[in-house]
Amino acid sequence: MSRRVAHALDRLGREDLDAASVAVALKRWKWACHAPAARLQGEHNDLTEFVAPFARDDLERALRALPRHLARELRSQVAPLDELYIAKTVPVPTWTNGNWWENRR
């Protein structure tokens, strides 16, 4: 994450969206997205049921809170990870609501 994005996050004044919290979320999202597909596709899997969705939720909140040009900068780091996650997971057919990353195993 760039210094500009980190500074903008800290200036939001939200404890849940400070630069450190978003950096941790980005690290966890990277970790989940780079995990082997076999690890991501198992049932009752903490990685796809808790770690990845919570990290991606935090990133989405940051993307929505940042000014457009800074969100674009952060999104350039998140989007390739999203593609990796989509490529390694499958949609849950019975899931009908929520964010796309919550609907994948």
Which descriptors would you attach to this protein?
mainly alpha, elongated, 0% strand, 105 residues, 5 helices
Structure, explained:
- The chain has 105 residues and is mainly α.
- The protein has one domain.
- Helix content is 66%, strand content 0%.
- The chain is built from five helices and no strands.
- It has helices at 3-11, 19-33, 37-40, 46-65, 68-88.
- α2 (19-33) packs across α4 (46-65) and α2 runs parallel beside α5.
- It is elongated.
- It starts with a helix and ends in a 17-residue tail after the last helix.
- The mean pLDDT is 93.
Q: Report low-confidence residues grouped into runs of 5 or more.
A: none
Helix content: 55-70%
Supply the number of helical segments: 5
Helix-and-strand structural type: mainly alpha
Percent of residues in β-strands? under 5%
List the helices and strands in order.
HHHHH
Largest sheet: none
The total tally of domains equals 1
Q: Alpha-carbon distance between the termini?
A: 27 Å
Basic shape: elongated
Radius of gyration: 14 Å
